Amino acid sequence: MTTPHNHAKPGDYAEAVLLPGDPLRAKWIAETFFEAPRLVNSVRNCLGYTGTWKGKPVSVQASGMGQPSLGIYVHELINAFGAKTLIRVGTCGGLNAKVKVRDVILAQGATTDSAIVKDRFGPYNYAPIADFGLLRSAADKADAKGLKFHAGNMLSSDIFYHREPGLEGYNTLPQHGVIGVEMEAAALYTLAARFGVKALTICTMTDCLITHEEISAEDRQTSLVDMVELALDVAVEA
């Protein structure tokens, strides 16, 4: 079943799908980690691939930038292509000085400023959270691999450039335990809950808004390798 955004055929996607935002990162993941990767989608150059990891089927699909874009791909992956486990793999900014560059954040929950999460909840403020089984698996595997990680509340913001400089754009969120900021997790968790599938967001912290420390290009690549291998191990065992 093709969609306006995806020309894959039934069965082209595995039930486990990694979701980087960047199409070129999707290509890099497929070519670097997959056994026998094959391109299954290239509509609008939002690339999707399927292959195997340690002998088990897995896919990767670029989701674009921001929650509206991710919402399209996740909705279609679940409802048109049968995805059951979706793991976002990306980078994030740090909102807590205890989180250092190269550290991995497992988004236990996702605060957001997006209207996409306010849909259909009436007077309630919905709290999007990760699948506990995926979260526990990721934490256990990160421990076993010796990866420095933090599990906590992530901010999924629709705004990249705030009018207020630095941390001022995030008000009191860091004081309430929000440890990182990215642009997709809350929508992913909301759609996963709506359609009864599993989801988790795993991010590498690449720049800290408090200390202004940034990761080098070389360190970014090495850190992404660790994060992607962690996500793949979790995905194929879900």
Automatic annotation (TrEMBL):
Signal peptide per UniProt: none
Catalytic reaction(s) noted: a purine D-ribonucleoside + phosphate = a purine nucleobase + alpha-D-ribose 1-phosphate; a purine 2'-deoxy-D-ribonucleoside + phosphate = a purine nucleobase + 2-deoxy-alpha-D-ribose 1-phosphate; uridine + phosphate = alpha-D-ribose 1-phosphate + uracil
Keyword Transmembrane helix: no
Binding site for phosphate: G21, R25, R44, R88, V89, G90, T91
InterPro entries linked to this entry: DeoD-type (IPR004402), Nucleoside_phosphorylase_d (IPR000845), Nucleoside_phosphorylase_sf (IPR035994)
Binding site for a purine D-ribonucleoside: H5, E182, M183, E184, T206, D207
GO biological process: purine nucleoside catabolic process
Pfam families: PNP_UDP_1 (PF01048)
Gene Ontology cellular-component annotations: cytosol
Domain of life: Bacteria
Ranges of residues in domain Nucleoside phosphorylase: 17-232
Enzyme class per UniProt: transferase
GO molecular function (one): purine-nucleoside phosphorylase activity
EC number: 2.4.2.1
Feature type site, description Important for catalytic activity: R220
Residues forming the catalytic site: D207 (proton donor)
Keyword annotations: Glycosyltransferase, Transferase
Recorded family membership: Belongs to the PNP/UDP phosphorylase family.
Subunit structure: Homohexamer; trimer of homodimers.
Function: Catalyzes the reversible phosphorolytic breakdown of the N-glycosidic bond in the beta-(deoxy)ribonucleoside molecules, with the formation of the corresponding free purine bases and pentose-1-phosphate.
Protein name: Purine nucleoside phosphorylase DeoD-type
Gene giving rise to this polypeptide: deoD
